[in-house]
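Reading a protein record of the kind used here takes only a little practice. Each token is a code from a learned vocabulary of local backbone shapes. With that in mind, consider the following protein and its fold in token form:
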Amino acid sequence: MTSTDRVEIDERQYYTFAEDAPMLLESGEQLGPITLAYETYGELNAEKSNAILILHALSGDAHASSCRSQTDENPGWWDDCIGPGKAFDTDRFYVICSNVVGGCRGSTGPGSIDPNTGRPFGLSFPVVTVADMVRAQRNLIDYLGIDKLLAVAGGSMGGMQVLQWVVSYPDRLHAALPIATTARHSPMLIAFDEVGRQAIYADPNWNGGDYYDGPHPNAGLAVARMVGHITYLSETSMHHKFGRRLRERERFGYDFDTDFEIESYLRYRGNKFTERFDANSYLYVTKSMDYFDISNGHGDLVTAFAKSTGITYLVVSFTSDWLYPPYHSKELVGVLTAAGADVSYCNVQSTWGHDAFLVEVETMTSLISNFLNRVIKENSIRV
């Protein structure tokens, strides 16, 4: 595939670049060629002024919406917010979402074929950072012919990419929506990621990351996903959804089979995750999150955002999110304010924990729609 190829298979498209001149990574290593899987929704207007880039979280991919398909059996991960009449209204906006470098859903990652060996990269794939992911996305936006994005938006790891966009390319966007995220990973977040990685290392099928010709380390990956999924919920949401209800039995089994509904749910989510995600990608993507600190290379956070004060911000957190608790967002708002940025902040009352940005649809629709309308009006943008 050449850098001018754009192949549409159902909703997914692919863009390949850095074939002749590999992309320099933050680590000092080089990577190329690089393929990004992406999807688009809506139509790009003549002025190319209505484009919004959506950035996914750890386990997400390019399939953010099902609005282009009436028969999609796998709804997009932000389907409730992207489509006609929704928060990111595809009757007005051209919405783009790509799978990150290092991922496993169509973009170049450790499971991709190394052109030098003809075999999957495995752990020979270079470590990538959030800044590397964003640099690759900028190449995609250049390819699409878009000089300036109306907005970039994302939650969790997607929110980290939003912040990296405003620091790396402040002249390429009007507005930023970092949601349920942080300006730098805390020790607790790094600790949870390390537990997940250790679960994968401990799987007898991991084989130092070279497992593509044999059984995959699905048991370890499932445990990693189970640990991660717990952090996406809240104690209140667990009580409401599961309580202490037993699973298809009326009394304790006094054995180590599944007793509780919550046990069954976590096992199901863990096992389903192994059907669509690569264990090595889990290692790489979590490591990129752990490395994330937007102040790197700038000295402090205020200095990091000094050149992005022309951007309008909407920062959103959720009261029950203990993975990225509201104080992370409040610190970010304080830093942006100190840097002289135009920033709005909303701490949404919710019992859904970190996943609230995917679940609180009515609130998110109102917040995002009103914010985008304000940005359009104040910047006299034609959409």
